[in-house]
Write a structure and sequence with these properties.
Layout (H helix, E strand, L loop, with lengths): L1 H16 L2 H24 L5 H19 L1 H9 L2 H6 L4 H22 L4 H7 L4 H26 L5 H17 L10 H10 L1 H9 L5 H25 L1
Helix pairs in contact: 1-6, 2-3, 2-6, 3-8, 3-9, 3-11, 6-8, 6-12, 8-9, 8-11, 8-12, 11-12
GO molecular function: ABC-type transporter activity
Organism: Candidatus Entotheonella gemina
Membrane topology: Multi-pass membrane protein
């Protein structure tokens, strides 16, 4: 636990020493504020449903900037070899870096709470639906960061890591649309099950289903396990 905490503290220091964390959080909050304002004034309905959908897509675009440096920066700086010689297991390295990235995700999430103030002042939103939306948002972010961290471990170039991550995340988001092009029921169910947007959409509607929670946790666990196995193989 102490080793994981040490890696976690190092990651936070790295994030806030550079402008990456400030840039990502600022861009995300500005984008969320814009979508919130637009949705409220265009629909006249005091809900977070449309804003959550916009937040989900925006998340796919900004989180790769957070995850791209997790391992790629270590490779390019030549510090990965030093990290591997320390008395740290691959899992401790992966967990520490992942927790550091999750901290940025939590900061982004908390920052959007300012949008809730006018909702409760001028409207009567459903708190349970909003809570479900935020649970889905965090689970979606956890899965995205796990995938991005694994892809960062596969390359020394941060830009390539970010581009691959964006491409894969967008693929998971839109894969459900391929359902209508499939005649085999098994393939149709598979595409629907793999769709990030379908599972996230259930949370936005206020449904916290075990299947959706398990899906995002499973994706995160698989990506982190692959990440750990790859680091073990590099040793």
């Amino acid at each position: 636990m102490n080793n994981t905490l040490a890696v976690y503290q190092k990651e936070l220091w790295q994030y806030f020493r550079s402008p990456i964390a400030y840039f990502v959080v600022a861009v995300f909050l500005l984008g969320t504020g814009y979508f919130f304002t637009y949705n409220i004034f265009s629909t006249g309905i005091a809900t977070m449903n449309e804003t959550f959908q916009s937040m989900g897509i925006l998340l796919l675009l900004v989180l790769p900037v957070v995850s791209m440096r997790l391992f790629a920066a270590e490779y390019s700086a030549g510090t990965m070899e030093l990290l591997q010689t320390l008395p740290l297991s691959p899992w401790q390295v992966v967990a520490g870096k992942y927790l550091g990235a999750l901290t940025i995700l939590v900061m982004m999430t908390v920052g959007t709470w300012i949008d809730l103030v006018p909702l409760y002042v001028f409207g009567d939103p459903e708190t349970t639906t909003i809570c479900a939306g935020y649970i889905g948002f965090l689970l979606l972010g956890m899965a995205c960061l796990a995938i991005g961290q694994f892809l960062s471990a596969l390359t020394e170039n941060q830009i390539i890591a970010a581009l691959f991550t964006v491409s894969i995340l967008l693929g998971f988001w839109f894969v459900g649309h391929l359902e209508s092009f499939q005649s085999a029921p098994g393939l149709r169910q598979l595409f629907v099950y793999l769709s990030f947007s379908r599972h996230f959409g259930e949370f936005v509607l206020g449904l916290v289903r075990t299947e959706a929670v398990a899906f995002f946790l499973l994706v995160s666990a698989i990506a982190l396990t692959l990440n750990t196995s790859y680091l073990q193989w590099r040793r």
